[in-house]
User: Fold these one by one.
Assistant:
Number 1:
Amino acid sequence: MAKTQIKRGKQKWRNKPGELVYTGDISSEEVQVDVLLYSPETDEISFKKKIEEFKDYSGYRFIDVKGLNNKDEMQRIGAILGLDDLLLEDIMHMGERPRLELQKDYLFLIMKNLYLDKENIRIVQEQLSFVVKDRTIVIFRDSDSEVINYAKEKLKNSKHSLRRFGTDYALYYIMDLLVDNYFLIVSDVEEQIEQIEEAIISGEESMNLEEVYRIRKELLLLRASIWPLEDVIHGMIREEGLIENSTKEYLRDLKGNISQIMDYTSIYRESILGLFDIYLSNTSNKMNSIMQTLTVISIMFIPSTFLAGVYGMNFKEFPELGIKHAYPVFWIINIALMIFMYRYFKNKRWL
Amino acid sequence: MAKTQIKRGKQKWRNKPGELVYTGDISSEEVQVDVLLYSPETDEISFKKKIEEFKDYSGYRFIDVKGLNNKDEMQRIGAILGLDDLLLEDIMHMGERPRLELQKDYLFLIMKNLYLDKENIRIVQEQLSFVVKDRTIVIFRDSDSEVINYAKEKLKNSKHSLRRFGTDYALYYIMDLLVDNYFLIVSDVEEQIEQIEEAIISGEESMNLEEVYRIRKELLLLRASIWPLEDVIHGMIREEGLIENSTKEYLRDLKGNISQIMDYTSIYRESILGLFDIYLSNTSNKMNSIMQTLTVISIMFIPSTFLAGVYGMNFKEFPELGIKHAYPVFWIINIALMIFMYRYFKNKRWL
Amino acid sequence: MAKTQIKRGKQKWRNKPGELVYTGDISSEEVQVDVLLYSPETDEISFKKKIEEFKDYSGYRFIDVKGLNNKDEMQRIGAILGLDDLLLEDIMHMGERPRLELQKDYLFLIMKNLYLDKENIRIVQEQLSFVVKDRTIVIFRDSDSEVINYAKEKLKNSKHSLRRFGTDYALYYIMDLLVDNYFLIVSDVEEQIEQIEEAIISGEESMNLEEVYRIRKELLLLRASIWPLEDVIHGMIREEGLIENSTKEYLRDLKGNISQIMDYTSIYRESILGLFDIYLSNTSNKMNSIMQTLTVISIMFIPSTFLAGVYGMNFKEFPELGIKHAYPVFWIINIALMIFMYRYFKNKRWL
Amino acid sequence: MAKTQIKRGKQKWRNKPGELVYTGDISSEEVQVDVLLYSPETDEISFKKKIEEFKDYSGYRFIDVKGLNNKDEMQRIGAILGLDDLLLEDIMHMGERPRLELQKDYLFLIMKNLYLDKENIRIVQEQLSFVVKDRTIVIFRDSDSEVINYAKEKLKNSKHSLRRFGTDYALYYIMDLLVDNYFLIVSDVEEQIEQIEEAIISGEESMNLEEVYRIRKELLLLRASIWPLEDVIHGMIREEGLIENSTKEYLRDLKGNISQIMDYTSIYRESILGLFDIYLSNTSNKMNSIMQTLTVISIMFIPSTFLAGVYGMNFKEFPELGIKHAYPVFWIINIALMIFMYRYFKNKRWL
Amino acid sequence: MAKTQIKRGKQKWRNKPGELVYTGDISSEEVQVDVLLYSPETDEISFKKKIEEFKDYSGYRFIDVKGLNNKDEMQRIGAILGLDDLLLEDIMHMGERPRLELQKDYLFLIMKNLYLDKENIRIVQEQLSFVVKDRTIVIFRDSDSEVINYAKEKLKNSKHSLRRFGTDYALYYIMDLLVDNYFLIVSDVEEQIEQIEEAIISGEESMNLEEVYRIRKELLLLRASIWPLEDVIHGMIREEGLIENSTKEYLRDLKGNISQIMDYTSIYRESILGLFDIYLSNTSNKMNSIMQTLTVISIMFIPSTFLAGVYGMNFKEFPELGIKHAYPVFWIINIALMIFMYRYFKNKRWL
Ligand SMILES: [Mg+2]
Ligand SMILES: [Mg+2]
Ligand SMILES: [Mg+2]
Ligand SMILES: [Mg+2]
Ligand SMILES: [Mg+2]
Ligand SMILES: [Mg+2]
Ligand SMILES: [Mg+2]
Ligand SMILES: [Mg+2]
Ligand SMILES: [Mg+2]
Ligand SMILES: [Mg+2]
Ligand SMILES: [Mg+2]
Ligand SMILES: [Mg+2]
Ligand SMILES: [Mg+2]
Ligand SMILES: [Mg+2]
Ligand SMILES: [Mg+2]
Ligand SMILES: [Mg+2]
Ligand SMILES: [Mg+2]
Ligand SMILES: [Mg+2]
Ligand SMILES: [Mg+2]
Ligand SMILES: [Mg+2]
Ligand SMILES: [Mg+2]
Ligand SMILES: [Mg+2]
Ligand SMILES: [Mg+2]
Ligand SMILES: [Mg+2]
Ligand SMILES: [Mg+2]
Ligand SMILES: [Mg+2]
Ligand SMILES: [Mg+2]
Ligand SMILES: [Mg+2]
Ligand SMILES: [Mg+2]
Ligand SMILES: [Mg+2]
Ligand SMILES: [Mg+2]
C-alpha cells in the first residue's frame, strides 16, 4: 500500500539538552567530508577530504558532510567549525521542523527535501542542515542526496553562477533546488487530481479512496514543509552581514515560489473536497436509482401474486372458478394491471 | 467536458537561477515589437517596430513585446531595456504568481488575464508582465491579447486620458481592464449560480454536479488570481518616484474593486455550498418518500396474501372452506383490512 | 419565490476610467436637487432648488441630489461642487462596495441601505453616496429614499440635534439610520430562525429549505454590507479636520453597533447550521423508524406464508393433511410464531 | 422546551441618537438608589438613599442604581453624575454588546451577567453598566442582581479587600464575580457533554438533539459575551489615571480566566461536533445492521416459498407429487437450503 | 472506557480574589519541601528540608514544594518567599491555563504535565507552578511528579549542565522535559492513527469510533496545553534581567519544538477527519452492495413465484394444466428467466 510518512524520526526523550543523539535510520557510522575551495577571482577549484583543510583558504569554502551517525566525529567537526552542542543536536535529530536561526556570526538553517519514490508511491523526506559563516557554507546530511550532488557538480563548472558569487548564493541555490522538488510533488498531486476528476465526472470509475487519502496526506506534508519557509526567507532577507543584497533579490523570487506552492496546496485541498462531494452524491444517486427500479418491479407483481393466491383457495362455494374463460380473463386483468402500474411509475418518474 | 485549468505551465526544474526558458505553449519563435512614442504636450504619436528606437525619444514610450519563445531575442531586448536575467526568466516562465517587484529605478509586475472561452466553457488564463521605468512602459506577452490591443487602440486617440498622463497611468489603465475582465467571470458565475438556484429550489431539475464543480474551480482560480493583487496595489500606492499621486488615486479605486471581487468569491462559495446542502436534502427526501410509499403498498398486501395461502391449504378437515358465502366474506375482510391499513398509514403520515 | 439579490447592477466594462455611466435601473433622467441651508446660531432654515445657491451661504449646507441617470447634469453638479470624474463615476455606478475615501479637503463615503420588501419577501439594496466638505454635505441617490426623507424632516425641526451640530454630525446621523435598518434585518432573521427552531425541535413541521437558503443569503448580504463599515468608521475616527471630536464620540458608539451585527450574523449562521444538522438527523431517524417497523411486520408474515404454501402442496402422500385438528393447530403455531417474533423484535428495540 | 435566548431586547429604531428609551422588560418605573460611602482610612461605612449625597464625601463612593425604566429620573441622575445622553442611552438600551469606553475623566463599561435558570433550563442574560470616575463607581441595572447584592454585602465587611482599595478595585471585583458566573455555565456545559458522551459511547441511549442544539447555543452565547472582554481588559490595563497598578495586576489574572473560557468554548464545540459524528455513525450502523439481518432472513425464505408454490400447482401430469416420501424430502431440501444460506451469509459477515 | 479529561478541577466561585483554596484532588495536607543549594563554582550540593534555610546561601537555590492542600503552610511559604496571595491562589487552583507572568523582580509560570496512563488509556494532566527570582527557583506541585524527580536526580550529578548554569536554565530544563512528554503523546497519537489507517484502508476492520473520539479529545487537550506556550516563551525571550542570554538560546530551540507539536496536532486532526470520511464511504459502499445483491436475488424469484401461484389456481377451465410436459416446461421457463435476469443484472453491474 502507498504510504506517506509524516514521521518524526526516532523518539528523543530525556536527553540532556545539547546531548548528541542521531535519530535517523542510517546505521553506518562512516562520515564522509568533501571540501571544495573556490574563488570568483580565479578559475581554479580544489577538492579536499579533511575538514581541517578549509581553514587556510582565503576564498570561499563549500563543505559537504555526509553521515551523522558518529557522535565523536560530529563533535570533532563541530569543534573545528565552532558550532555549539545545541546546534549539533538539531543537526543529528532527524525530526526537526524547517527553521532559520540567525546568530551574530553565523546562520543556521534546517530544510526538508521531499521527493517521490515512484516505486513505492510514497513521498520520501530528507533533512538537510546548513551553516553559513564567514566565506563558508557547511551542509550536513545523513545519506546520499541528489540535490547536493547536483549542486557540487555545478560548482565544478567554472562558468556557473555558483562560482561568481559567495556562499550565501550557494545556500540560495540549494534552497531553490529543494523548492523545485516541491514543485514536482505539486505536479504529481495535480496529475493525480486530474485523473480522479476525469474518473469521477465521467462517472465510469469509482473513486479510489485510499489514493484520495494519500493525496490529502501529501498535501499536509507539503504544507508542513513549506509554510515555515515563509518565515525563513523573511528572516534571511532582513539579515544584515551574511547575505549579500544580490542574493536577497534571488530570495525574494524564491519567496514568490513558496507563496505559490501554498496557494496550490489550498486549491488542491478544496478541489479534492469538491470531488469527494461529487463522488458521494454520485454513489448515493446510483444506489438510489437501482433500489428504486428494483422496488418498483417487485411492487408490480404484488397484486397479481395475491390474486393468484386467491384463485388457488379451496372454498367449496367459489363461483368465479366456474365462469367461462375466467382463466384468460385473469391474465388479461393482470397484464393490464402491470401495464397500468408501469405507466404510472414511469409518469411519476420512478422508473 | 468543461474544464477549468489551474495549470502551472510546463515544469521548470534544475535550471540555473536566471536561465531563460520559455514555458508557455506558443511554438512560434517570432517576436513582434510595437513602440508607441507620445507626449502629453503634443497631439502626435509615432509608431516604431524596432525596440532600439525608443531610446532617442524624450516623451513617453509604450513598448509592446509579443512572443516570448526566443531566448536570444529576449536577451537582446533585455540588454537594451536594462533588465537582468532573473526578471527575464520570470517573464518567460508562464506559471508565475501575480506579484509586484519594486526596484530602485523600475517596477516589475506580473498579472493574469482571465477570460471565458465560451465555446469550450472554460476559463483561459494569460500571463502579462510589465516593466515601468523612467517614462517607459514595457509589456511582455506570449500571444495576442485583446486587452493590450484595446489599450493600444485607445492610445492612438489623441483625446484619450492615456495621452494626458504618463506610463504609470498606462499601467493602471491596463490593470483596470484586467480587473474588469475578472468582473465578467464574476458575472458568469453569478448567472450560473442563479440558474442552479432556480433549478434546485423549484425542485424540477436535478443539480448538475459537474457544473457545480466547475464553478467551484472557477472561484478558486479567480481567488488565486485576485488576492495577491491586494498586496500589489498596496505596494504601488506606497511606492515613491515611479507612480504619480494622481495615478495612486486611481489605484485606490481599483483596490476597492479587488476587495469587491474577493467578497463575491466568498459569497458565491457559500451560496454554492448552501445549494448543495439543499440538493442533498431534496434528493434524500424524494428518495425516502418513494421508498416509503412503495413499502407501504407492499405491506398492505402481505396479510391478504397470507390469508389466501391459508385458504389454499389442503387440510382434510378444514371447516371454513365449507361455510356458506365464505368466499365473499374473504373479500370483504381483505378489503376492510386494506382500507384500515391505508387509513392507518395515512394517519401516521406514512402516505 | 422569495429572492435575495446580491446583484452588482449592470455590467460596467471597457469604460475609460472616470467615464460617467449610470448603472442602476431608474430610467428617468430627471435630477431633483434639494438644498437646505441652516446654522446653529439661528432658528431659521431656507430651502433652495438650485444647487448653485449653496455657495453664498456661510452656514451649513445640506444638499440632497436625487436621480443619477443624467450624465450632463451630473457633470454640471460635479463641476459646481468641485468633484472629479472618478468620484462621479463611483456615485453613478450602483455596484460599489461600501467604502470611505479621505481626501485633503473632502470625505467621500458609499453606503448601502438594506430594507425588507415585505410583499416580495426579499431584501432591497439601495446605494447612497456622501460627500462632506467644508460646511457642506451632499447626498447622492438614484431614487426615493425613506432614510434621507426622514433625515430632512428632522432637519426642519429647529429643536433637533441635527440643527445644533455641523455636517459631519448630519453624516453620522444618516449612517446611524442606515445601521438601524440593518438591525431590522437582523430582527427579521432572528424571528425566522426562531420559527424554524420551533418547527424543527417540535418535529411537527418539516424544514423549509428554500427559506433556510434565503436566510443564509440574507446573512451573507448583511455581512457584505456591514463588514467594510468597520474600516470606514475607523477611518472617520482617525480623520483630522472634517470630523469634530464630538461626532467621533457618536461614531465610536456606532462602531459598537456594527460589531454587534457582525456577532449576530456569526451566531445566526451557526444556529442555522445547527438546526440543519438536527433536521437531517430527524428526517433520517423518522425514515429509519418507518422502514424498520414496516420491514419487521413483513418479516413476521414470511414464515407463516411459507407454511401456508407448504400445506397447499399437492403431494399424494402428505400425512399432516389428514391429522385431526391439523388446521386449528396450524393457526395456533402461526399465531405463537408471530407473538414470539413480535416480542423478540420488541425486546431488541426494533419495534 | 429549553430555550437559550440570544435576544437583543426590544427594537430601538429611529430614535434620535442620545434619546433615552428603556428597552428591557421591567415595567415598574421605580428607581432605587443605594449610595455606600467608605474610605480605607476608617472602618466606617455610611449608607445613603439619595444620589445627591455622594458629592460631599471625600472618600470612595459606591453608587448602585436599580431600575432604568424612568427617563426623567435617569436624566436627573445623569445630570448629577455628569453623564451625557449618549451614555445614558446605552445604559438604558438592554441590547448592548459588552464594551469599554475610556474618556478623559471617566470609564464606561457594559458587561453581561449570565446565569442558568435551572427551572426553565435556559441561560438568563442580564446587562450591567458601570461608570468609574474620580473616587466613584456607579452601577446601573434594571432588576435585582445577585452579583451586585453580593458585592455590596462584602463591602459592608470592614475587613474585606473591597474596603482596602479604591473604586477601580471594586469594578474589578464585580467583573471577577461575573466571570466566575461564566465558569458556572462552562461547568454546566461540561457536565452535559459528559452525560452525552457516556450515552453515545455506551450506545445505550440515543442523542437528545434538542439538548445538543441548546448546548451549542449556550456556547455561542457564552462566546459572544466573553470575547469582547479581551479588548475590554486590554483597554483597562493600558488605561492611565483611573486604574491603579495594583488593580491592573488583578485584571491580568482575570484576562487569563477569559482566555481559558474562550479555550473551553472551542474545545466543547469541537467535542460536540465529534460526538455528533459518532452519533450519526452509530445510528447509521445500527439501522444498517437491522435492515441487513431482516433482509437476509427474508431472502432465506424466498426459494422455499417458491418451491412450496411449485408443488401446489395443479398440473395434471406432475410426476414428483406421486413419488414416495416426496413430502419429507421437500422438508429436508428446504432445511438444508436454509442452513446453507445461513452459513453463507454468516461467512460473508452479513449476519 | 478510555477517558480523556479536560476537567478544570473543582469549581472555584465566590472566593475573595486572592483567597487561598486548593482545588485539586489530593486530600493529604502534608507539605514536603526539598531545598537544593548549589553553585557553579564548587562541586558541592547541600540538601535541606526547611524552606527558611535557602536564605543564607549565596549560590543557586532549587526549592521543590510538594503538597498544596494546606492553606496555612502555603501562606507561611509564601511569606518566606515573598509571594503575594494572588499568586498563591493560582498555584493552589488546579484549573489554571498555562501562562507566564513577568514581574519586576520575579517570574511566575504555570505549565501542564501530560502523560499517558497506559493502564486506563487516558491522558493524565498535572499542574506545575514555577517562581524564578534572584538565584532561586521554586517549584509547586500537588503530588509526586516524575519530571521533577528526574530533574532533581540530574542536579545531584556535579557534571550535569544543570550545575553549570543558573536557575533560569533549571526552569528551561524542566520545561524541556515537559515538552518532551508532549512528544510522547504525539507519538502515541501517531501510532494509533497509523493503526486506524491500516484497519480502514485494508477495509478488514471497522473503525473504533470511541477510539477516534478519544484521539480527537487528546489532540484538543494537547493543543490547549501547548498553544499558550508560544506566548510564554516569547515573553521569556523578551524578558530582561532574570533570563540569561545563553538560556534564551535554549528557549528559542524549545519554541521550535512547540511549533512542531502545533503542526502535528493540525496534521493529525486533518488525518483523522480524512480517515473518518473514508470509513463513512466504506460503510456506505459495503452496505449498499449487500442490499443490492440481496434485492436482486429476491427480484429473481418474484416472477417465478407468481407463475407457480398462477398454476396453483383452481379454475375449472384451465387448458395449460392438461398440456403434456407442461410441468417440465414450467421449470425450463423459470430457469431461463432466472438466467436471463442474472445476466441482465450482471451486465448492468448490479451484481
Ligand atoms: Mg510564485
Ligand atoms: Mg500564498
Ligand atoms: Mg498566495
Ligand atoms: Mg484557495
Ligand atoms: Mg469544501
Ligand atoms: Mg511568482
Ligand atoms: Mg469599493
Ligand atoms: Mg468596489
Ligand atoms: Mg473585501
Ligand atoms: Mg467577504
Ligand atoms: Mg461570506
Ligand atoms: Mg456551509
Ligand atoms: Mg456596543
Ligand atoms: Mg453594540
Ligand atoms: Mg463584535
Ligand atoms: Mg463575531
Ligand atoms: Mg459565533
Ligand atoms: Mg456548526
Ligand atoms: Mg459548522
Ligand atoms: Mg490563567
Ligand atoms: Mg486562565
Ligand atoms: Mg485562548
Ligand atoms: Mg486555556
Ligand atoms: Mg480547539
Ligand atoms: Mg469536526
Ligand atoms: Mg524546529
Ligand atoms: Mg520544531
Ligand atoms: Mg508551527
Ligand atoms: Mg500546521
Ligand atoms: Mg493542516
Ligand atoms: Mg476534512
Number 2:
Amino acid sequence: MAELMNRQIVLRRRPTGLVQPADTELITAPAPEPAEGEALVRTTYVGIDAAARTWLNDQPGYLPPVQLGEVIRAAGIGEVVASRCDAYAVGDVVTTLTGFQEYVISRDDIFTTPVPGPDVDQLAVMSVYGPTGATAYFGMVGIGRPQPGETVVVSAAAGATGSVAGQIAKIAGARVVGIAGGPDKCRAVVEDFGFDACIDYREANLHAALKEHCPKGVDVYFDNVGGPILDAVLGRLAHKARVVLCGVISSYLTGEHPGPANYVNLLSKTALMQGFNALDEWGRFEEAFGPLRRWADEGRLVHRQTIFEGIESCVDAMNGLFTGANIGKMLVKISEPGGKKIPS
Amino acid sequence: MAELMNRQIVLRRRPTGLVQPADTELITAPAPEPAEGEALVRTTYVGIDAAARTWLNDQPGYLPPVQLGEVIRAAGIGEVVASRCDAYAVGDVVTTLTGFQEYVISRDDIFTTPVPGPDVDQLAVMSVYGPTGATAYFGMVGIGRPQPGETVVVSAAAGATGSVAGQIAKIAGARVVGIAGGPDKCRAVVEDFGFDACIDYREANLHAALKEHCPKGVDVYFDNVGGPILDAVLGRLAHKARVVLCGVISSYLTGEHPGPANYVNLLSKTALMQGFNALDEWGRFEEAFGPLRRWADEGRLVHRQTIFEGIESCVDAMNGLFTGANIGKMLVKISEPGGKKIPS
C-alpha cells in the first residue's frame, strides 16, 4: 500500500494577536506507525477552543506552551484506524488531543477517552459529552450552584461553553441572562438556547442593561471573557453571589489582564469568585455526562456548531473565535466520520 | 444626683483621606434615659476598626453611612449602669455598637452581646472573643481551611485580625508568613505572634520576598489590605489556593480599588477568592469562641493591644490605623473597667 501521509499545521513563530500566515505552516509527513500499546487515530473534527490560542504564547499554564516546530495542540475527536493496544479497536471513536493534523498516535492516557458506540454523534460529543460539556457542567453545577428564582448571567453566551452553561442554569430553575456580541448571536442565545434575555455588549450600555435585566443583582456569573465585562458584572453582584471563572478570552490575544476594580464587591457582598479547569475533574466526567445526556434526550439541552471545512482552515477557525465568527461549538472537519478502515 | 453627661464625637463633615479636626466635633449632651426594655451602658473601650472609617463615606455598605450630626459608629465594650430590661443587670459587661461616646443605650438586639462573668478580661473580649476573633476564625477556618504543611500568607499581620488569623493557621499546622509595615511590626509578628516569617513590605521587593518565603506558592492568603499587595500574592498562588478577602484597607481612605490584574491566576491555578463579613455569622459566634478560648488557655493564642486614652483621642486612633500606629487591636479607653454603679 501507499504510505499514509499526515498533513499537519506546525508553529513557526509565536503570534501576537491574531495568528498570521507566517506564524504557522501546513506540512506533510508520513503518518506515524503505532508502537506496541498505541493506536493510530484519524482525526474527524478538531475543536477550536480559546485555550488553544494561549498555548501558542511562551507562558507557563496548566499545559506547557507549544514549541516552535510542533503541531498546534487542540482537543479533537477521531476514529481508530490501526491499533496495537488492548484499549482500542479499529473503528472505535475516541476524543483526544488530536492537534491540527490528520492522524495522531493515541495511548490509553489521561487525555484520551473512548466514546461508546460506533454510531455516536460526534458533533454532540464535541459539544456536550466531552470537555466542553464537562466544563459547563462542573462550572455551573459545582461552583455556580444556581437555585430556582436566582439570576444567572453568562458571558460568551452563544459560544460552546456558555450556551451549555446557561441551559444548565435554566434547567435548575434560574432566570438566565446572556451577554454576547451582535444581534445574530443574541437571537440564537434566546431563540435556540432558551435564555430569558441576551445583552448585546457591542450595542448596549452594559451597566444600564445589567441593571435592567438583573434588578435584584446577579447571583451567579459564569465568566468566559474577563476584562470590562467581568468588571461590570462584579459591580452588580447580589449578596452571596458566585462568580465562576471559566475563561479570559478578552485577554488571550494580548496577554494583558486588566484587573477588575469591582472585585471589592466580593467583600461587601460576601461573594465568591472561583477559577476552575475541567481537566481537574477528568476522572469525574461521567458524573456530568449522565445528566447532560438525559437533558439532551428530553429535549431540554440543545447544541449547535459552527463548522469550518478542511485542515487548511484551522487557523482561520482559531482566529474566528476571537473575531466572533461562531455560534455554538467551533469545529474544523478534518475527515468524514464513519470512514473506512485502512486496508491492510 | 447631678445629671449624667455624655461626651460624644459626632460627624460634621465627610472626611477625605485622614479625618481632619473640622470633620468631627466633641460635644456634651445629657446621657439618655433608658426606656422600658433598654439599658444604659457606660463605654469602657471603643474598638477602632478600618470598617468604621468606611462608614464615614457616603457610600452604601453592609451598614448605612453615618449621617452628619450623628455619633461616629464603632464597636465597643462597656458596663451596664442602669437597666430597665430583663436581658441585662447593672454590672453586666456587654459588647455593642457603642460609637465614639461615653454612654450608649443598649437593647437585646443583634449587635449587643452580654459577656459572661463580672471579672471578664475586656481586652481579651475586644481582641479575641468578639467580632475581631470571630472574623479571624471564620475567615481562616471557614474559607482558608489551612492544612498541615501548607503555606499561608497574612497581610496586616501585626493587626488585630491578621495576628489572630495567622496564629489560627499555625495551630492548624501550616507554615505562616506575615506581611507588615516596618521592623517593629515584623518583629512582633514573628516573636509575639509566632509566625514563621514576616515580610516588611516597605523595605522588601514584595515579589522576590514572596518567592523566597513561599517557594511552593501560596495555598491560603488572608487579605486585609487589597491593592498591590493582593496583586502580588495572587501572582504566587499555588494550585487550588484559597484567598480570603477580609478587608481593603489600602483603599478605605481614597475609595479607590485598583483591580488586581493577577486575578487571572484564580483561573490557571483553579483557585478561589471569597469575601466574607463576620456579621453574617453572628448567630454562630460561639462556634468560634470555644476553640479560641481553648487555644488562649493553652497559651497557643496570644493577643496584644495598642490603647489610646480618652474619648478625645478616638479620631487620632482611627487615623493611626491607616498610618500604621498599632500592633494588635487598636482600642481607645473611654472609662475604667470595673467601675462603680451609678448611685441611685
